[in-house]
UniProtKB/TrEMBL annotation:
InterPro entries tied to this protein: DapB_C, DapB_N, DHDPR_bac, NAD(P)-bd_dom_sf
Subunit details: Homotetramer.
Broad class of enzyme this protein falls into: oxidoreductase
Protein known as: 4-hydroxy-tetrahydrodipicolinate reductase
Keywords for the protein's UniProt record, in alphabetical order: Amino-acid biosynthesis, Cytoplasm, Diaminopimelate biosynthesis, Lysine biosynthesis, NAD, NADP, Oxidoreductase
Function: Catalyzes the conversion of 4-hydroxy-tetrahydrodipicolinate (HTPA) to tetrahydrodipicolinate.
Record-listed E.C. numbers: 1.17.1.8
Cellular component annotations (GO), alphabetically ordered: cytosol
Gene name of this polypeptide: dapB
Catalysis performed (reactions): (S)-2,3,4,5-tetrahydrodipicolinate + NAD(+) + H2O = (2S,4S)-4-hydroxy-2,3,4,5-tetrahydrodipicolinate + NADH + H(+); (S)-2,3,4,5-tetrahydrodipicolinate + NADP(+) + H2O = (2S,4S)-4-hydroxy-2,3,4,5-tetrahydrodipicolinate + NADPH + H(+)
Annotated NAD(+) binding sites: G77, T78, T79, A102, P103, N104, F105
Entry's Gene Ontology BP terms: diaminopimelate biosynthetic process; lysine biosynthetic process via diaminopimelate
Length: 252
């Protein structure tokens, strides 16, 4: 598989290292010093099968415009643009382009999300249990809360009737019972830790994903890129995982 890396920071470097180990080829690289020329034509990608975009929120929207115009499959790991999700979906579908996005490409996070979705109907029947989310990342992370924390929070708000809104600000008084509190810490070199706490009157259940390195995210992103080749449309990582789950169910 021929890849174009847009963003050669820590995640881009992890993807390149793992891709080369797997026999893939990096045919183009772009970064802050050598930005993606969004006004150029697709030849700047040197025949890439898939673009891997792990950049910053303030540039990714222009990148997506270019990918749609070029109709090159793109895996988007950049977060901070999800307020434009519906608009981008329409653009991708109207242009016949191919895009897969995820706030987190860790397959462990995907498992955490699946477990949470199974728990929410049970929690709906247990009103004495409250829920919170806390996430920790390194000090260089650009957005807060993380896209993953917000994704998990939206699942809870959508699936638990007693939680109707997400509260991300520090609370200096009592928090409203309908608010889901999502908090963040930025410290050191932490790759990413997401904790979902489920607090009852007599006990607490904690669901936690702790990333040991960026290689797990890189592996998931490369799997997504392979899955994306030959497809058209707007996808999330869930679409790939649901296809796997459906295939496993059919075999059983």
């Amino acid at each position: 598989m021929k890849l174009a890396l847009v963003g050669t920071g820590n995640m881009g470097q992890a993807i390149e290292r793992l891709a080369l180990q797997q026999g893939d080829e990096i045919v183009a690289r772009f970064n802050e010093e050598h930005p993606l020329p969004v006004e150029a034509d697709v030849s700047v990608l040197n025949g890439a099968d898939v673009v891997m975009d792990f950049t910053l929120p303030h540039v990714v929207r222009a990148h997506i415009d270019a990918y749609c115009r070029w109709r090159v499959p793109a895996v988007i790991g950049t977060t901070g643009w999800y307020d434009q999700l519906d608009e981008v979906r329409q653009q991708v579908e109207a242009s016949g382009a191919t895009l897969l996005y995820a706030p987190n490409f860790s397959l462990g996070v995907a498992l955490l999300k699946h477990v949470l979705q199974q728990l929410l109907p049970l929690l709906e029947r247990l009103p004495d249990y409250d829920v919170y989310i806390h996430e920790v990342h390194h000090t260089r992370k650009a957005d807060s809360p993380s896209g993953t924390a917000l994704m998990l929070a939206r699942l809870i708000v959508d699936g638990l009737s007693r939680k109707t809104r997400i509260e991300t600000e520090t609370q200096h008084g009592r928090i409203a019972p309908e608010a889901l509190h999502v908090t963040s810490t930025r410290a050191g070199q932490v790759f990413g830790r997401h904790t979902i706490g489920i607090c009852g009157p007599f006990d607490e259940l904690t669901l936690e994903h702790n990333a040991y390195s960026r290689d797990g995210f890189a592996a998931g992103a490369l799997q997504a890129a392979r899955w994306l080749v030959g497809r058209r449309g707007f996808f999330s990582l869930d679409d790939m995982l649901n296809e796997w789950l459906h295939a496993t169910t059919n075999r059983n």
